[in-house]
Amino acid sequence: MTTTTRSMQRGLALAASFVTAAFLTTAATAADLPLYTKAPPPPPPALDIHGFFDASFGGDYITPRGLHVTNTGLTSQLAMGLSADLYKNKTGPINLITVYAGIWNDLWSKQNDPRVGSWNEFDWWVGGKVTFLNNWAIDTQYIEFLSPPVNGFRTERNMSVTLSYDDTSWGLPVQFKPYIRGWYQFSGSSNVTTGKVGSGYTEFGSILTLDLVKKGYGVVFTAPTWISVGPKDFWTADATTVCGTIATPCGTNNAGVVSTGLTATVPITWIPKNYGNWSVRGGFQYYHLINDYLLQGQVNTGVAATFADAKRDIVVGFGGINFNF
Length: 325
Hints:
Layout: H1 3-32, E1 49-58, E2 61-62, E3 68-70, E4 75-88, E5 94-108, E6 119-132, E7 136-146, E8 156-165, E9 178-187, E10 199-211, E11 220-229, E12 255-267, E13 277-289, H2 292-301, E14 313-324
Antiparallel strand pairs: 1-4, 1-14, 2-3, 4-5, 5-6, 6-7, 7-8, 8-9, 9-10, 10-11, 11-12, 12-13, 13-14
């Protein structure tokens, strides 16, 4: 072997040793470096379009104003609606602006109307809601009550404005969620059958809430509670409005109805979230009719045969199902 050949072999061996050492050094250094992975994609933005469907079933139909409409057979009430979030800002003074619209139907199994059968009432509404300072909200709504039956009432056109406060952020075991609502009727038959059209009332209420879902018990209890007060003419158009009997005539009063109850709502967790949020509920609502003209309203709707038969205290049981997204 020549001197040149031996020199080449030593050079190749030295180069191989250098490459091997470099590779091992690089591998050791890489093992000490932190592991970098691709960042997960950002969560999808919150929906700007929301909707709901609600079905409720009970034995009686009483309006929030205390008019006892039906008390026989099965009452089925179906509602649905859509809303759109026009503005969102969690840190500003105005947090959310939403517009919405919806419809509601009341079906009474005992009505047997020759034209529409059990279809007793149809309502529709449009409105807007502004949430501000994180916990406050003001909700303005226009709503019409329509009566499909042959001998139904004249379309009632109404406006409501509600100021509410959500105290969930306080961290109390029970949330009170108080509100105040102003109601005004523009035209149509009286909301309570005996009152003046072109009048209104004020409702003071609270939706007491105990959310046990957050504690792992799978149920939310709510206790909607309110009292209505207003000018006497909302309940009675004038002093000549027939009410009561000669022996026991109706007294005029600024108060309408006080109501409270208890509802248990259970989320349906086995339905995947991409199909919306589902829940079932059951409960009762108690009504005490303060105003005598609400008793006369029972005679006018056919719930009571005479004023003496009218009930001042009424309990309504119900069950239902809700879907929203």
